[in-house]
Amino acid sequence: MTGLRPALLALALLGLIEAGAAAAILATSADPSLSTFQQVAVPIIGLLWVDTGLLAWLRRPDNRTGALMAMAGFLWLLGTLAELWTAPAAVFVGYLIAPLYIVAAAHLALAYPTGRLPSRSVCALVTGLYITATLAQLPALLMAHIGSTYRRPAGSDPLIVHATRLSTEWPGALMEIAGIVLLALTVRALVNRWRVASEPRRRLLAPVIWPAIGMFCFLALVLVVAVLSLPDVLGSIGWVGETVFFAAVPLSFLAFLLRTQATSVGAVGDLMSKLQNAPARGELRDALAQVLRDPTIELVYWLPDKKRYVDASGRAYELPQPDSRRTVAEIEHDGRPVAAIVHDSTLLDQPELIQSVGAAAALALENERLEAELRARIEEVRASRVRLITAEEAARRRLERSLHDGPQQRLVALALGMRTARSRLPNHPDTAAELIEACENELTTTIDELRELARGIHPAVLSDRGLTPALESLCGRFPIPVEIGELPVERLPAAVESAAYLVISEALANIARYSGATHATVAVARRNGHALVEVRDDGVGGADPSRGNGLRGLVDRVGALDGSVELVSAPGEGTIVYAEIPCV
Fold this sequence. Notes:
alpha+beta; Heat Shock Protein 90; five-stranded antiparallel sheet; five-stranded mixed sheet; 10% strand
C-alpha cells in the first residue's frame, strides 16, 4: 500500500493532464460539428472514469476492477486527443485506438466484480474485441477512399479517412458487422451472468452490468443503422446517447460505493442494538444475515481442543473450499479464533463491512461458541456411548465364540473322557489310568487357553502389579523389538492404567499388522496431572484412522476419561500415537 499511493497519485495527475489537453484541443477546434456539450463532456467523463478507477484501485489493490476502469478512462481521452490532433498521421492513429475505450468497458463489465475474466470463452470474446478494435481495422483504413478528408484540407494525406464513406467500403462493412456480433455476444454473456447470479451478487453486479448493457445495445443499434445505410435518424443524439451510457457506469459504481459505506455504518449500529440483549439460539445468525443482506450465511464455531469447526448443533463442519460462490470469513476475539461466517463470495467486495460486523458480534459469537462446544461434547459423548455399547457387544460375541470353540469344547471332551475312565476303572484300570492322564493334559491346555483369553480382556498382572510389569510382559511377547522408555514410578489410577494399556496394546497390534516396522518405542509419563502415552514405530507410515474401529474405540475409551488420542503418520516416516489422559 505504501508504494501504491504515489503511483496512483501519479496516474491521477496524468489523467488530469490528458483531460486538460483534450479540453484545450476541443475548445480550439475549428470543426463546426463539435457541440458545446461535447467540448465540456469529453474531458469530464474521461476524468470521471480515471478517478473512479483509481479510487477503486486504492480501495481494493488486489482487485483489477479499478485498473480496468482507469484504463477505459485513459483510452477515452487518448482517442479524443489522437482524432483531433492537427498532425494528419494522428488521425489515422486515432481511428485505430478510438474504439478501445468501448473494449475496455466491455472487459471491465465482463470481469466485474473480481477484475478477472470468469471463463475461457469470455477470455476469447474479450480477445476478439481487442483484435477487432485494432488490427482488424487496418484493411478498412488502407482501402478507404484516397484523398478523402476528415477535418483536414483535401489531399493533405492519403491515409486520412472520411468517416461517412468508410462504411460504404466492404472492409468497413465487415468490421461493423463483426462489431455487432461481438457486442451481441457481450450483452448475452452479461445477461447470462445476471440470470444465474444469487440475490447478493445481483446487488453487486447491477451498478456496472446494466449501464454497460445499455451502452452496448445502443452502440449495436448505431452500427446496424450504418451497415444498412439507413437515414441518419440518430444524428447527434447517437453521440449523446453513447456518452450518457458511458458516463453512467462510473457514476453508478460511485453511487454504489457511497451507499455501501453508509449501509455499513448503519448496519453495524443496528447489529449492536440487537446484541444488547443476549440473543436466543438462531437469532444471531438471523441478525447477521439481515445486516449482511445474505440469507444464505452459516455460522460455525471453532473448538480449540478438537481443532475443528462445528455447527450450532455441535456436529463437525467442514469449511467449503473457496470458490466463485461461497467463501469463509474467520472471526477472532482477543486474538483467538472463535467462529467463521460462511457467506456468499459477493461480500468479499465489502471487506470493511464483514470486519466491522465480525468485530461487533465477536463477543456474542464467543458465547455461542461455548454453547456449541458444550453441545459438541454432548453429541460426542452420545455417539461414544453408542460405539462403546456396540464394541462391548461385539467383544462379548467374540468372547462367546472363543469360549465355545476352545475351552468349552475341551471341557465337554474332558467330561466325556472322565466318564469313560470311571466306567472302565473296575475292569480295565490300566486303560482308565491312561484316560485320566489324557484328561489331565487336556485340562492343562484348557487352563492355558482360559488364561490367554483373560489376558486379552484384562491381564491379571495389570491389576495385581501395575502398568510397568504389564507393559514389560506385553512388549516381551511382541514379534519385533520394542524399547520401553519412561514409565511412571508410582501406580496410576486403575482406570487410567487400563486405558493406557489398551492404547499401547492396540497401537502395537496395528504395528504388527500394517506398519512393516523393525523397531518400536513405548513411553508413559505423568506430568501436570495427566498421563502422557506415546507409541512410535519406524514403519511405512500413512496410517488412516478412519479405516477400522481400533483407533475409534481407543478414542471413545480415552474420551470417556476426558482424554484425547492423536495419530501422526506421514507416509514413509513411521507412525506416532499420542494419548493424554487426566489423572484425578
